[in-house]
Every structure is written in structure tokens, then in C-alpha cells.
Amino acid sequence: MIVLASDHAGFILKEKVKKYLTKQKIAYVDLGTDSNESVDYPVYAKKMAEYMLENKNSQGILICGTGIGMSIAINRFKHIRGALCHNKQTAKLSREHNNANVLILAGRSKKTLISYKSLVKAFLTTKFLGGRHQKRVDMLSNL
Ligand code: RB5
Predict the structure, then answer these.
(1) Does the 2-141 domain belong in CATH 3.40.1400.10?
(2) How far apart are CA 54 and CA 18, in angstroms?
(3) What is the pLDDT of residues 31-69, one digit of tens each?
(4) Which of 1, 20, 63, 120 has its C-alpha lying 20 to 30 A from 114's C-alpha?
(5) 16-46 b/e with 16+ CB inside 10 Å = b?
(6) Count of helices and strands (H, E) across the chain
(7) For residue 104, what pLDDT is reported?
(8) Are 107 and 101 in contact (CB under 8 A)?
């Protein structure tokens, strides 16, 4: 299952991502926020981390203005490997090398607002390569 969440600064992009997923016939769960009204991004990062703890094979797409606050917040949880990506190449590599389970997007970045579909597609369709990367991902869990 794909799980989405954002703060107010990521709300518009979250709605765009939802439309894109619907068009691709990809099911998702939306944990909010539900408007442009100001909210606190750590609350939504925590909601996502809790959902992903219960739903082991889920993947997240998490959005705030810069993506930075959400990155800091979501990576505090041990079962999360969140990747703030600004282009298709890093979205793909976050899966291949880091086995990232949360794609973090910058909702106030003009570049991201133009290219988000290719980032989401790369993230959702790319597989973890394992091999030498597995050891490094295992090391993350032990930090
Ligand atoms: C909200 O104004 C903004 O600070 C937030 O979306 C995010 O960019 C924080 O890192």
C-alpha cells in the first residue's frame, strides 16, 4: 500500500500525487493534512511512521515545503529510510542503493512541481539492488 501525508505546504502537491496515482490505478491511503491551513509537519511524519510500522510492506510519499522538516522527522524512526529527492535519478537510486521506503518531496519547489510524476514513478517502480547495498542498509539499522 502507498501511504501519503503532508503539511499545509505540501498539500497542493499531495493532491496532484493522488490524482496521478488514481490515473495509474495505484491504491493509496491519505493521512492528511486536508487543506492549506497551517499544521505542524512532525505530526504528519509521525502518523506515517506509525502507519508503516503496522503495515510492513507499505511505501510512503511525504511532502512539506522544502522536504527538509519531513526528512528530519521521519528518519528519527528506525524502520524508516526516507529520501528527499529532487530529480528522477536520485529517486531511482534511493530505491536501488538505499532501499528507501519513504519518498520525500518539496512541495514548494517549482522544479518538483513540474517533475513529480517522474520522481514518483521512478520510486515506485525501482527495485532494491541488494548485494553490497544490503550490508550498508543493515548497518543503518544498527547505528
Ligand atoms: C512550513 O512553512 C514549512 O516550514 C515546512 O513545510 C517545511 O518546509 C519545513 O521543513
Answers:
(1) yes
(2) 22
(3) 999 999 999 999 999 999 999 999 999 999 999 999 999
(4) 1
(5) bbbeebeeeeeebebbebeeeeebebbebbb
(6) 6, 5
(7) 99
(8) no
In the chain, where the domains are located = 2-141
Task: Over range 81-85, report the average pLDDT.
Answer: 98
Spacing, Cα 41 to ligand 1 middle (Å): 7
What is the DSSP code (8-state) at residue 70? Answer: H
Phi and psi dihedrals of 103, rounded to 5? -90, 125
Q: Which of 41, 43, 84 should be mutated for ligand 1, with most atoms under 8 A from CB?
A: 41
Ligand 1 residue neighbourhood (C-beta within 6 Å): 7, 9, 41, 64-66, 68-69
